[in-house]
Description:
By secondary structure, the chain is of the alpha/beta class. The protein has 17 helices and 10 strands. The chain folds into 2 domains: 13-109 and 146-295, TIM Barrel, CATH 3.20.20; 297-404, no CATH class. Helices cover 51% and strands 11% of the residues. Strands 1-2-3-4-7-8-9-10 form an 8-stranded parallel β-barrel, surrounded by 8 helices. Strands 5-6 form a two-stranded antiparallel ribbon.
Amino acid sequence: xxATPEVLGLKRSFGFGDRLGLAxxxxxxxxxxxxxAPIFAQQSIREMTRTKRTPDEVMRAAVQALxxxxxxxxxxxxxDHLQTPEDVVRTxxxxxxxxxxxxxxxxxxxxxxxxxxxxxxxxxxxxxxxDVSATGARDLYLGKSFDxxxxxxxxxxxxxxxxxxxxxxxxxxxxxxxxxxxIQGACGGKPFEVEMSVDETPSPTSPxxxxxxxLELRRQGVKLVSLAPRFVGEFEKGIDFKGDLKLFxxxxxxxxxxxxxxxxxxxxxHSGSDKFTIYPIVARLSGxxxxxxxxxxxxxxxxxxxxxxxxxxxRELIGFCRGRYDTDKATYHVSAKLSDVPADPADADLxxxxxxxxxxxxxxxxxxxxxxxxxHGKPPYKGRLLDLLHKRADLYREVLAIHLGKxxxxxxx
Length: 413
Ligand SMILES: [Zn+2]
């Protein structure tokens, strides 16, 4: 039963990304008693490329650990941030059960700033390409209002806003529907579940945009288990939420209502690592309809083991990561500057500065690919780190159980 991943359905769930393939025992300890369904294998194509791992390796690491731990409950496997049909086929072949479609390359990121004329021209292009129908959104939604659970209602009363949503997401929705078809084919009758993620867009997903996306996917026959909007506030890597909690709560509440109306499906919180201040809010408002994804925070706990038991090695890693940071941060949402943290602190300060405080965490977080990918003619850090984690498996398990356990405790509301 536990040997292969399963679909988890509309139940609270938590994704434990594990870039090193040794974190599952600690993840199990963190999860125990939480009431969350686990996703023990979760890796995006981007992470696999950067760490030079394959879907098969990611799956095998989880399966072996779960067998050793005699895990007998259900668990899921998330092929995260899939962009192409090839990504789908590669991961479906290895038995992944949860497919996260990331159509952000097809989101028109300029749409927010386009004039009415430019929007009309952009829509005409979408029609010509067959991504949207000529009168689609207007005929379907303009002037219509939707009563959401909880008493609120949303109305498409602004023709320009509706057109903007169609231009912004039209091609992304079509891409999602196509990949959904690929997933159906690749799974060949086996159960699967699908998430759509638009969390990596520059501006937050407005309620009317979410409603448009949810209604359109339903209309196109795409059945979601979860959707990851881009929420208000900052979801930087490896650190707590930054922003106005009251505003976040108000927006989140509307997103929950839309997810119930259009699905029901779960709201998925990406970059969920260390977002401690919002956990009680999302737990309270979501009920069972919640999924949280983490990954980098487990990698940082691996580095914590190094900080505790091999300070010269940890110091060497810090030097290497500082050298990579300004290049590697480009594809991540972070705000740390190298000058925020001393390059060569005293031994007693290493762990606190680089693993407890925000800037140090971000410097070590976004450089994981350079460390684990072993490129750039640098020493094979991955091998040394893995050796250390094998030797101190007890400590790695313990720090993961504490840190991820804190996540799950706060998520119980
Ligand atoms: Zn994401």
